[in-house]
Design goal:
By secondary structure, this protein is mainly alpha-helical. It has one domain. Helix content is 78%, strand content 0%. The protein is built from 10 helices and no strands. The chain is globular. The C terminus is likely disordered.
Length: 213
């Protein structure tokens, strides 16, 4: 398989994986399989997949650096935009199905409930990332694009905190996401330190021999 066909196949499978949770959620809604509290079910499913796809997008660079898997690089934008799509569904569920666009109640929730504050802050971090994910914006921003897109780590951290503060009893799942994020951050710091050491290590200049008489 040539590289172009392989890239298309990978994108196809990535998009299929992105659509599958939403399709399952829609099927459950149409068949009455959302349980006694459908709004809560939709909220949890969309929030879970937003965080999962965000962490998957952050794992692309470590996989490339550690194992030489360059074939995963084209998937980073697809995974990141998928995370943003589920985050939009999660946020819209909060606005429309949970609060029925009662803006006063929404603002009170954002300001008074710490897990809502963390989740809303995570969503705000994702907005500029999605808006600047195109190749045209990458060229326009130049070197500023990379520092801006490090907001993805902040969004993931806020998403994990949102989940931790939301869960009241069983913390195993949010702690698992926290461990995955800690690993990704640790690898990122390790790569940065290794790059800094390589830049600072200058080759020793050979000592000049004294000229003979």
């Amino acid at each position: 398989m040539n590289p172009e066909r392989r890239k298309r196949a990978l994108q196809f499978f990535a998009i299929a994986a992105a659509v599958l949770p939403a399709a399952q959620l829609i099927a459950s809604a149409l068949t009455g399989g959302l349980g006694a509290n459908p709004v809560e079910k939709i909220t949890h499913v969309t929030g879970d997949w937003a965080l999962r796809f965000l962490l998957l997008s952050l794992s692309v660079t470590p996989l490339r650096r550690l194992f030489g898997w360059h074939w995963v690089v084209p998937l980073r934008r697809t995974l990141g935009l998928t995370a943003f799509g589920y985050a939009c569904c999660h946020f819209f569920t909060f606005l429309a199905l949970d609060h029925f666009f009662d803006w006063r109640s929404i603002v009170e929730d954002v300001l008074e409930r710490r897990y809502v504050t963390a989740g809303f802050s995570a969503f705000l971090c994702l907005v500029p990332l999605a808006a600047t994910s195109t190749r045209a914006m990458m060229r326009r921003l130049g070197r500023r694009w990379v520092p801006l897109h490090r907001l993805a780590y902040l969004a993931a951290a806020l998403g994990v905190v949102h989940f931790l503060w939301l869960v009241k009893s069983d913390l195993r799942e949010p702690l698992l996401y926290a461990a995955a994020l800690a690993l990704l951050l640790g690898l990122r710091i390790g790569f940065w330190l290794a790059r800094s050491r390589s830049r600072n290590a200058s080759p020793k200049e050979p000592k000049s021999r004294p000229s003979g008489a």
